[in-house]
Automatic annotation (TrEMBL):
One of its GO terms (molecular function) is oxidoreductase activity. InterPro entries: DIOX_N (IPR026992), IPNS-like_sf (IPR027443). This is Non-haem dioxygenase N-terminal domain-containing protein. The lineage of its organism: Eukaryota, Fungi, Dikarya, Basidiomycota, Agaricomycotina. Transmembrane segments: none annotated.
Length: 137
């Protein structure tokens, strides 16, 4: 099999990078508050870096979490599905989440685009070991 690589110009979204390592000092905390406020009010998306997990720890977390989805049958998942809609405990069936918060680990593959203020779709650039946060209302 021969694979072709095609270079295409891509428009990337200009997202704020929130560095949590600045939060250890009061002046850094104030700066983080302002950065997050601006990112949420202008775009709704931002990167989070220096969140405390190394790439190997993140990979281990994903390995452990995947067991929950890969090693448990759908029947057992249904048994553990929440019955009361007023509480947020237990397993939820697909398409049942109502919380407008997205937390994504940045990956070196294309896939996430956001609609910018100029009504153009822009790609999210990969930043190694960053988390992409989105809050919507």
């Amino acid at each position: 099999m021969i694979l072709s690589i095609i270079a295409v110009a891509v428009d990337f979204a200009d997202l704020a990078v929130i560095d949590l390592s600045k939060g250890s000092a009061p002046e850094g905390q104030a700066e983080l508050v302002q950065q997050v406020r601006k990112a949420l009010s202008e775009v709704g998306f931002f990167y989070v870096i220096n969140h405390g997990y190394t790439p190997s720890e993140t990979a281990r977390i994903f390995d452990i979490a995947s067991l929950t989805f890969d090693q448990i049958s759908d029947e057992e998942k249904k048994e553990n599905a929440r019955k009361d809609q007023a509480v947020y405990r237990g397993y939820k069936l697909r398409k049942e989440w109502l919380i407008p918060v997205t937390i994504l680990y940045s990956q070196p593959i294309g896939g996430l685009e956001i609609l910018s203020e100029d009504n153009k779709w822009r790609w999210i650039k990969h930043i190694d070991n960053a988390i992409v946060r989105n809050f919507t209302y």
